[in-house]
Predict the 3D structure of the following.
Amino acid sequence: MKLFTAHLVDFRNLSARLEFSPGVNIFVGRNGQGKSNVLEAMHVAALGASFRPGRLGDLVRFERPAARVELGIEEAGIVTPVVVTVSLAGQRQMSVGGRENASLEDVAQHLRVVFFGPEDLHLVKGSPSGRRAFLDQAIAGHHPPYGDRLRGYGKLLRERGQLLKELAYGSPPPTEILESYEEQLARHAAQILSQRVKFLREYSPLARQLVLDHTDSRLELEITYQSSFLPIVEEGLVEAADIYPRFRRQLAETRAADAPAGRTSIGPQVDDLELKLGGRLARFFASQGEQRQLAVSLKIAQLALWKERFGVHPVLLLDDVLSELDPVRARLLFSRVSQWDVQTLLTTTSREDVVLEGDCRFFDVEGGEVKWE
Amino acid sequence: MAETLPRTIQRLIKVLSKLPGVGNRTAMRYALHLVRAGGETLLEVASAVTDVAQSVRLCDRCFALTENPGACDICADPRRADGRICIVEGFGDVIALESAGLFNGRYFVLHKLLSPLKGIGPEELHIDRLMARVKAEQIVEVVLATPSTTDGETTATYLSRILAKAGARVTRLASGVPVGGSIEYLDHMTLTRAFQDRKDF
Ligand SMILES: Nc1ncnc2c1ncn2[C@@H]1O[C@H](COP(=O)(O)OP(=O)(O)O)[C@@H](O)[C@H]1O
Ligand SMILES: [Mg+2]
Ligand SMILES: [Zn+2]
């Protein structure tokens, strides 16, 4: 699947018609001209949400009623139209191939994206939530039901939190109610944990190889899933059916301790990915440069896994990361991208950052208008 | 935008815009259409709405909509099989199941699903009335047909727990119901399969 054309109407400051190269598309312009907005439009179309915080309605150009993203997506010589509109009130509507009321899964049949922005360079050093988010998008991006599961789990956590507070501070809820929520919570947690562990089993060897090839130090990468639910770490539990009953019991045991804060202390929401380079925690011992290289490699490994293992061919969106990479790393990135035939959209303030041979197209972005040679 | 309109019409627009899927614009279109259609139509709509407000109530036994003073038509129908209750979230689900002709027992309409965050507990679902029926009516099967959303699943889990304690056999619609799916909007085939393949729960 490759982006063929785009027509953006009142999407932030953009009004533009674009024709893409199947290779690398470089959006060049000064700050604040609309480069990232182009990438954001693709992100919203593919995933239903932006990579920036805020409401969906913020995407609509000031003083206008709705934003519209019309894409032509090419696959085996056939171009499928995908149209996404967002209203000021934040209502999203999609059509795929002329069929109205399409779902995100319908869109995902034709368009997947992998986004990498400046924030992602902090993946190694940053907070556990960033690493969880990395893991979750890597799974949900090729397996949409996982995303639904996560959202359901988040809601159940908030519901249990409410029940725990009632338990601690006032009128204790009926036991059957608490048990019902904990049962559902445990079912969701077991699925999520199992899927994370299984994903990492396939992902880790690929990532290890890429890091070995890509980092200057040629160190061995070791990825461990750090679970608050110890049987995963200590006994290597993998299957949801094995995790569920034990998790369920543990939830009941933590009830009293969790109650005052209304916060559930075990589960996917507090877990972390431990990254070791050459046997040492990368978070503490790797240099800033090594951490960035590692972050890029982890993302490329995701791309590789999606393509090789899941047959998913995403469009790569790189926002402002080029200037943060040294030239050697940047060239390596591009050689992978062209070797794997990954269509790429990237933004930069300076053409000089881009060292490329092969299929590419430069776009000039100024004041929300986009031109190309 | 509607400030230039007479106040009464503004009020009508405001009322109409509360309907699902009707924004301000559509509400204004409906309102102006009604006004243009004139006196007859306006009064007809008004009296239809008033009639509903005055005569529709919830059935004493199953909480479905009815105009009957006590039990609704389904609850009162002697040809319906005794001993089976199907629990649904809304009245739309009763209509969907009835038009598919899948179930010959009686219903229980919750109108809401459990959510501690929204302050919805067993009382809001009149669970005590459900349990009273289970005791009084010699129920052989309770079919849980709540949606397969997070709230729907948790409500089903809760119901199965308390019903099992009361000794009732509890079944749940089969997985033909898509995750996150509402019964009301299922196509005929899917609903039929989901109902016929219902499982002990
Ligand atoms: N809803 C909106 N309507 C119009 N312009 C917007 C809207 N949201 C953001 N902008 C404008 O978009 C510009 C930022 O675009 P962006 O793509 O982030 O810039 P860059 O080229 O630096 O990546 C700013 O000038 C901002 O004012
Ligand atoms: Mg930018
Ligand atoms: Zn009734």
In short: The longest strand of chain B covers residues 84-88. Chain B touches chain A through 17 residues (CB under 8 Å). Chain B has two domains: 7-55, 65-200.
